[in-house]
Specification:
Number of helices: 0
Strand order of the largest sheet: 5-6-7-9-8
Number of strands: 9
Pfam family, one: zf-ChsH2
Structural class: mainly beta
Radius of gyration: 17 Å
Order of helices and strands: EEEEEEEEE
Organism: Streptomyces solicathayae
Protein name: Zinc ribbon domain-containing protein
Helix content: under 10%
Domain ChsH2 rubredoxin-like zinc ribbon: 19-53
Shape: globular
Length: 152
């Protein structure tokens, strides 16, 4: 049987290649506001006076930890959580992208804990797996610390 890789939410990130992996947002051509999750119907900036189009843009691949916490509860859909298996906590990270002037949420990569993510530390977005079954691998994004030797 062939296992199909599927994004948890189509259009929110590029494929599975770590070297080119990016979150995808949209930018209003009238006011230059950037949105993630993407906006496809209209500009969500209440101050925008234009009738600009929304263009897809890749977001910065790196940012700084704005905040983080341990997820010690079973999350709601679309996260898959089998009540018959022991719950494993995960780390949720809020990352500030300077170029886009926004904060983006996501899970930390497996094995990365709150202790690994001091506020202000640099992280990068990487492809991740949310869930697997016999037919599908559900892909998503994760944040992981940038090793000290490659930080800017």
């Amino acid at each position: 049987m062939t296992v199909t890789r599927r994004p948890v939410v189509a259009g929110w990130f590029t494929g599975d290649d770590e070297a080119d992996f990016r979150l995808l947002g949209t930018r209003c051509t009238a006011c230059s506001s950037v949105f993630f999750p993407r906006a496809d119907d209209f500009c969500r900036n209440p101050g925008c006076q234009g009738d600009g189009e929304l263009a897809e843009v890749p977001l910065s691949p790196r940012g700084r930890v704005w905040s983080c916490t341990d997820g010690r509860y079973r999350p709601p859909a679309p996260y898959v959580s089998d009540p018959d298996t022991p719950w494993e906590p995960y780390t949720l990270v809020a990352v500030e992208l300077d170029a886009e002037a926004m904060v983006v949420l996501g899970q930390a990569a497996p094995g990365v804990t709150v202790a690994d993510l001091p506020v202000g530390s640099e992280v990068e977005v990487v492809p991740g797996i949310l869930n697997e079954d016999d037919e599908h691998v559900w892909t998503t994004w994760h944040w992981r610390p940038v090793p000290a030797e490659v930080t800017r």
